[in-house]
Specification:
23% of the residues lie in helices and 25% in strands. It has helices spanning 13-18, 37-43, 48-54, 88-95, 99-105, 132-135, 162-169, 173-179, 217-224, 260-269, 353-363; strands spanning 6-10, 24-30, 68-72, 77-81, 119-123, 148-155, 193-200, 230-235, 241-248, 253-257, 275-285, 288-296, 310-311, 321-322, 336-339. It comes from Thermohalobacter berrensis.
Length: 366
């Protein structure tokens, strides 16, 4: 989508941001092989007569590769130059145009990537409705909340072990073992008392209604969205959503779609198929919205076999091993990943930079 158009603005800097009826816009365009006045007029939505008049041309004028033409403004729309941090969704919010109309007007779709310097058409009627304050990501990064821990006791029942208790109370099993001075070989007996840590995580300030809390995984998000939580995953760019369940995951959230219908909704967001592409999302649970980033590729599981036990085949070329698929008959083999601020990959313990960029987008932070 990048082109060699250069914007010539006869206006003040403020007018260039939101536009006014007194602002005059024009563009220079470098002629390419195969171009004609007709093709250029159609490409930029201006009348052929207006284009030729702006360039002192006639029907006999010949175009040459490399020649510079002036592209006049169309009274029906104007061009907006994409800036760092912009997304189609944020631009649609800025100018009060629906995301669908913005994408259609610019021959884009929900998977298109825009870059600083790109030019997007905006209906002229939306020039004066630009909402600069509410649509621009914030440079303010809120402080992490002051969390605190309280404790309660659990009396061991038949079938209890540290793993089942970690699932029951949403506490990582390693933390549960440490608090109880236990290790993986420690056995529990009916009537034993197990200490359960309870993490209290105050709600953070958000950049705006459409953004999520910029909540650290280690001190907050993993407790606010515990293992076993049924969550709503909202795609930041399109607003489409589906229901899912956090089933496992220590360094980030391992998540499974709740039903076959939810799996189809996930695939629709990612272009109709499962995909490793990372997208900014909002995770909604228990009245809170948390900024996150998700990839849409299930892995490490077998939907037709029992979860948590050895299986001879696992999705994503993971081979035989523990079956990390707990939600059955949902049209998905295994789980997909959701990352939060400072979460890490399970395979190497490293922070995934692309996921972290998306978390910032979902939090409204540049």
């Amino acid at each position: 989508m990048k082109n060699k158009l250069k914007k010539i603005i006869v206006s003040t800097i403020a007018a260039s941001l939101i536009g006014t009826s007194a602002t005059a816009y024009a563009w220079t365009y470098e002629v390419k092989s195969g171009d004609t006045f007709w093709k250029i007029s159609q490409r930029y939505g201006v009348s052929l007569d207006k284009l030729m008049e702006s360039n002192n041309a006639t029907e006999n004028t010949i175009l040459y590769v490399g020649q510079k033409l002036t592209i006049p403004d169309n009274n029906d729309y104007f061009y907006y130059e994409v800036k760092s941090g912009d997304t189609p969704y944020l631009i649609s919010e800025k100018f009060g145009i629906s995301l669908e109309n913005l994408l259609s007007l610019n021959n884009l779709n929900q998977y298109s990537i825009i870059y600083p310097g790109d030019k997007l058409k905006i209906p002229a009627s939306n020039k004066s409705t630009a909402n600069i304050t509410n649509s621009t990501p914030s440079t303010f990064i809120p402080e992490q909340p002051r969390t605190y821990i309280t404790y309660k006791e659990h009396t061991v029942q038949p079938g209890d072990n540290f793993w089942t208790l970690s699932l029951k109370y949403g506490v990582p099993v390693k933390e549960l073992l440490k608090v109880n001075n236990a290790d993986t070989n420690t056995r529990l007996y009916v009537g034993d008392t197990v200490t359960i840590p309870v993490h209290n995580v105050p709600e953070m300030e958000r950049a705006g209604e459409k953004y999520g809390e910029y909540l650290d995984w280690w001190n907050g998000a993993q407790y606010v969205i515990p293992i076993g939580a049924t969550i709503k995953v909202i795609d930041f760019y399109t607003g489409k959503s589906f229901m899912a369940k956090r089933t496992t995951g220590a360094s980030h959230a391992d998540v499974e779609a709740l039903t076959k219908e939810d799996t189809e909704k996930l695939k629709d967001i990612w272009g109709g198929n499962f995909s490793w592409v990372r997208r900014p999302v909002i995770v909604e649970y228990n009245g809170r919205k948390i900024a996150a980033s998700a990839s849409g590729m299930p892995h490490a599981g077998n939907d037709s076999d029992r979860g948590g036990y050895y299986t001879s085949w696992r999705s994503g070329d993971y081979g035989p091993g523990i079956n990390l698929d707990y939600v059955k008959n949902n049209g998905m083999n295994g789980h997909f990943d959701i990352h939060f601020l400072n979460s890490q990959r399970h395979k190497d313990g490293k922070v995934d930079e692309k996921h972290q960029e998306n978390v910032k987008i979902a939090a409204g932070i540049r």
